[in-house]
Amino acid sequence: MDGYRTEEHIASIATADYVRRYRDTERFLSYCRECRMYGNYWTCPPFSFDADAVVRQYRHTLIIVTKVIPETEGIPQNDVCVTVERLIRDCRQTLDSRLLALENRYGGRAFFAGNCKLCYTAPCSRTQGERCIHADMARPSLESFGFDLMRTTQELCGVKMLWSDGKSLPPYITLVSGFMHNTEGEIIW
Asked: Which top-rank group of organisms is this from (predicted)?
């Protein structure tokens, strides 16, 4: 999709510090419980695995904040929610591929920005009690593990999260991805 540009902001933090300063599992999972996706997507809670155990495996966390900046010319304003979803989906294709490439290169665990976009034309197989058909590519988000993304983006990357009011596009859309790993030295994003 044309009509936007991206700007990336990267931060690295020790996972133990990230958990201590930015994770409030009970608070954020209570928000998840109110969402229509809770229990209906394999990348959403409740999980069939111990999220705490996953996080404890890794020493370092890379935070990738992507600002998706709409170029307002040529973007239909009549259905803002559809436009925002298209922008996110388009940008996520590249982001998700890059995150999976990090897993292949360094080991570790990728966290995608927001909800799963792999089965968008059909309901998730979880609703039928079946295994994930994209288990090799599906990844949870940091918020689904209880991390506070508003504080993460603002304090670690200097980016304030914005949302659409449903009537107009925000100046930018914020996507927050992560990569937990044990690699010493610089990760090449």
From this structure: Bacteria
Cα(162)–Cα(137) distance, integer angstroms:
28
Range 87-91, long-range pairs (CB < 8 A, 24+ positions): 87/1, 87/3, 87/4, 87/173, 88/113, 88/114, 88/117, 88/173, 88/175, 89/117, 89/120, 90/1, 90/4, 91/4, 91/6, 91/66, 91/175
Q: What does the pLDDT look like over 124-178, one tens digit per residue?
A: 899 888 999 999 999 999 999 999 999 999 999 999 999 888 778 889 999 999 9
Instruction: Give the pTM.
Output: 0.92
Reference 152, options 30, 57, 54, 21; nearest CA is: 21
In contact, 44 and 38? CB cutoff 8 Å: yes
